[in-house]
Amino acid sequence: MQLGAALGVAVLGSLLAGTYRGEVTDSGVAAGLPDTALDAAGDSLGGALAVARELPGEAGEAFAEVARSAFVSGMAPSMFTVAAAVAAAAAVAAVGIVVSVLLFPKGKAGDAGPAKLPEQSDAPAVTEPDPRLHA
Q: pLDDT tens digits, residue range 19-38?
């Protein structure tokens, strides 16, 4: 389960980061930035907002808005991937339930009838101890 969680975080994080980086670096606002600032902005939203604070006036505000928008846009492929995985898991579970109901209808899974309680046993009641046990 931990492996699945780690892989899920890695895959979803890669989808989000790839979309985010592409939108930030390809935006018109980022065109005049030096490579070091563009690398910092593409690494994380925090880095992009730090770069935006260093830009003058409207350019900084515009770059911050582009970075925020790119981050939210990066969530879409990640969430669609999660939704597809959940739908696939639900389909597998539903198929499993249908197959188990069809293969093992009620009362047909090796059931020999209702279980008898000890007082309903067909064996004769033992009234005296067996002499072979005390020899």
A: 999 888 888 888 888 888 88
- Determine how many CB atoms are found less than 10 A away from the CB of residue 129: 8
CA distance 94 to 17: 34
pLDDT in tens, 4-16: 888 888 989 899 9
Here the contacts of 62-69 (C-beta below 8 Å, separation 24 or greater) are 62/29, 63/27, 63/29, 63/30, 63/33, 66/23, 66/24, 66/27, 66/29, 66/30, 67/24, 67/41, 69/23
What is the CB neighbour count within 10 angstroms for residue 4?
9
* Vertex 80: Cα angle to 77 and 85 (nearest 5): 125
CB atoms within 10 A of CB 27: 18
DSSP three-state, residue 98: helix
Single-letter amino acid code for the residue at 91? A
